[in-house]
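**User:** My hope is that you can spare some time for a protein that puzzles me. I have put the entry right below:
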Amino acid sequence: MSAKYGLVGYNSSRKHISISIPSSTEVMSPHIKSVEELRVLGINLSSFSAPVQFFICVAGVFLFYLIYGYLQELIFSVEGFKPFGWYLTLVQFGFYSTFGLIELQLTQDKRRRIPGKTYMIIAFLTVGTMGLSNTSLGYLNYPTQVIFKCCKLIPVMIGGIFIQGKRYNFADVAAAVCMSLGLIWFTLADSTVAPNFHLTGVLLISLALCADAAIGNVQEKAMKIHNGSNSEMVLYSYSIGFIYILAGLLCVGGLGPAVAFCSEHPVKTYGYAFFFSLTGYFGISFVLALIKLFGALVAVTVTTGRKAMTIVLSFMFFSKPFTFHFPLSLTLVKCHICYIWHNLIIFEY
């Protein structure tokens, strides 16, 4: 009977599988196979303690995304470029797809684990958050756009409740609401002194925030269920998103004028866009590392703090109207960011 069903020698050929379970003190996402695999830009974070890992990731996020924000505003400061926000997103998605492909080819496991339908949804949300965000700069000045994006913590919390079934205590919700009040004060101040404040820009950036609320939670859930890698996520979501944007620009006839304009200013458009995309890709790597090590809420809190610093640099490098409302409201926002850090980081230890 054993020979008939091919069971001869089963005991001698049986493979043993060893499964190690992290202790309760280790904060690890289920899609990390081992501590040794957690590398960011060649840095093996597993060789450092948890606090050092956190500060390395924070430094990476601040460094690359501050440069990213500066280059983004620099591109839109080119005279005549503001109508071509969607084309910039197309170019950015093209670079991200290329970087993701290169990184994936350098890894041993090149299989696609997450279903294609899931990537189509993630790509749609990615197009929404990045495309609408870039386009909003044609109507809002950069500090106003950034301060709106600082509200991302609230929609991300709401998305976590509905998409992943997460729960938050009253202190977390209260801190997020109070932070939003400071951001609203900032926006009202900007509407009285900045000539390019426009209701259309507010609508665009609000829709971008709605997409932001869903995308992080959908990505986190997909990577946990299907054990997908970061490079796989970037490659497929941005390459599918590239097709979405390209089809849209071809349908509305917006590709030709954008290509013609950028061809006349290749250095200030494609040149800036390359470094803009490169620094953004590096920044994403550190954000994903934060999510893996400390969770999505901590990552959002860090990026919110980075956006506050971006506002300061925006006033330093670009000429803008300024009133006392800006530093006061920004101080209020930073106080609540520190409060969230205290509850989400220090409490961990």
User: Anything to note?
Assistant: Residues 1-36 have pLDDT under 50 and may be disordered. The longest helix spans residues 266-294.
